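dumping these here so i dont lose them again. two proteins, back to back, each one seq then structure tokens. dont judge the mess
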Amino acid sequence: MKGASILALVILVLSGFVTADHNFMLTVNGNYYFEGDSHYKDFYGESRIFPEGKLAVRLFGNFYLWGSYGYMWTTQTYNAWSSKGVFNADLETESTLKKHIISGGLGYYAGYIEPGEWGLRLELGMCRITNKVRTVSNYLASNDVFSDEEREESGLGFRTNFGVTYGLLKGVYAEALGGYI
């Protein structure tokens, strides 16, 4: 986990790039995600870091359209029982969650992306989160597959972001961003 935290910090420092004409913005960042669904939180953990890429295209003035894609995954391994009549756990179960987050919307930027300059970003939009879960159970004694199940669920919701940017170089900035998915 320490390695992932350091990676996220490095990504945050080298967060964004803007074209010379300020019409396109590319952001690559690490997000710290707090799970809201109690089922996933209890099983896979309360929070995790995941990468996200975002492309923004200026509409007019300080308004822009943005789209982003984020991906996170986690694996949980535990021992289980193949039936009620079994006294000791005889299965090893591995469950993998892959979460895809696709978002887009309208944004507003106030400030300059110049060295030493501060700026503010506000983004409102929609997001689609898709959870793909694969659970594989193997017999501990022989490693033969007992069951292999996959399921997928997704939902549509709102997304808001509020960020503070700081210009590092001409067209390169660092950003601290908070939001709700």
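---- next one ----
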Amino acid sequence: MRVRSYAVGLLLVAGILPLLVFGYLSMESWKRTTVAEARRTNELLSQSAAYRISDYLAHERAQLVAAGLGMLLAPSKNAHHLAEANLIGFPHWHNLTLLDPSGKSLVRAPSSGYQRPAVRESAALAGTSVYSKVREADASRDGPFAHSMSMAVPVSVVGALRGVVLVDIDLISLWKPIHAIR
């Protein structure tokens, strides 16, 4: 009987106790590794989202500069038609406005239901792009389903400020690059 209990005790100490200790240490190591990996993955995802948003805004800015140059260089009677065409070509743009360097409105579209974009253009008149804070979706402004923001972008020709383009942009098209993040 003593030999049997000694054998069972030896089996417990030599066989099962190391397995329990190893299991406990493995679980603790796994928890630390999992938390660290989740944190690193979240950081990479947030960096990717930030880069995509930055690229999106840079692309919108470049399109606005091109639209502004077209309206500036077009004959004055055609500039309004060009502004309306830009609103058709870029359906997420609203309330397109072109200002001269003194701040006087040269062109604004659409012809009906126009609201001046809610952004201070003074910095843009000094040569720096200005972005408003993102506004929540509002059915009375840019549409009930899209958050929006306003932009004021300087337009220069051969290094000389020729005007400023103001626009309200709904951010519905921002979702495509964001959903592409994996």
